[in-house]
Design a protein that fits this description.
The complex is a heterodimer of chains A (135) and B (260).
Chain A: E1 3-9, E2 18-24, E3 27-33, H1 46-49, H2 51-55, E4 65-68, E5 71-74, H3 77-95, E6 102-104, H4 110-124, E7 129-131
Parallel strand pairs in A: 6-7
Antiparallel strand pairs in A: 1-2, 2-3, 4-5
Chain B: H1 2-14, E1 20-27, E2 30-36, E3 45-46, H2 60-70, E4 76-80, H3 82-93, E5 102-106, H4 111-117, H5 139-145, H6 149-161, H7 168-172, H8 200-208, H9 218-222, H10 229-244
Parallel strand pairs in B: 1-4, 4-5
Antiparallel strand pairs in B: 1-2, 1-3
The chains are: A alpha+beta (135), B alpha/beta (260).
Chain lengths: 135, 260
Amino acid sequence: MEYKTTLTTCPYCGCGCGFYLESIDGRLVGTIPSKTSPVNKGKLCIKGWNVHEFVQHPNRLTRPLVRKNGELQEVSWDEALDYTADKLRNIKEASGPDSIAFFASAKVSNEENYLLQKFARAGVGTNNIDHCARL
Amino acid sequence: MSENIKTKVAELLSSGQIKGFLGLRSNEGHIGPYLFTNEAELDSLVVGDWKNRGDSRYPLNKCLINIACKYPEDTFGVLVRGCDERGLKALYTWNQLNPNKVVAVGIACPQELADACECLKPYPDECVDDEKAKACEQKAVSSIDALAIADRFALWIREFTKCVKCYGCRDVCPMCFCKECSVGSDDLIHTGQLPPEMPIFHLTRAVHMIGRCIDCGLCNEACPADIPLRTLYKKVADIIDKEFQYRPGYTDAKSPLNVL
């Protein structure tokens, strides 16, 4: 029997609320906002309160899907990345770099967002980069 | 205070009376719920003092229900204040926990915390320390009761208007255990809409907490809009006490409204 309360940071937005994820034998069962977190002081929004629901949800995608003959099929990461790179390259060659836009994310780290804008600007050659909240 | 608790919990763990002790742990500058399963960990056990005494209380009974659901045959210890003990008694009557599988280790609240909570009984029946705070006057309720009824209504509507419908009051509540939640039911309220219906959303919950709310105040502390929910539920509890002579958790009796 293993009951754990793991202090972690909410993955939803850039606020970074602190909470404990309750788990029993490796399965998440609850979210408890941290009272000592200076960001949220024991409070959460509705999304934060329900974080434990999605992590191990059976409907969650865990592998990339590519549509083949009208059907989504599971593929390897290598195949998915090659497919995406090919498509982006084709679009850029056909319509120019400004035909592509990038949405950064509040759910990732500063470093990952830096990489995304670097890829957009230096790799693809566009300034079309914005925040996911504008989607 | 926590030295006496540590001694008591160490005895319970070493004698095998309990499989684990659900309490609070100080770790890396934070205080949170933790299941202690061996004596060596007890150095980090705390009673929830952070900036003020007892200001980092957590819904330990709620955690205990999660554990008991998965391991109903095992006995666990749990740290209880007066409110938590009331919670245990009420949860026993609602068959959410088995009293034979729970060992409560009680602590009395300091007067400072009792005053902040305006608690009627800031200590459990049995506690490891003898110093008990005095019961407090219900100033928050009486100050609102003193208002004219139109002003009282306006005050509550003003408070409810701040609601962002995070459901934090329900999610943190150690007495919220229903599989089908009243404030999650489309028959009673519009679940997917903001703002919540005034004042039906909050009054639905207030009425549903009759016979359950044990006045721990965790809902009030979890509310991002600082709605004084505790005061509302205290008032509801007063009405039920007056009409039915019943306050949940103060006796071992079932709620008079628990007729099914």
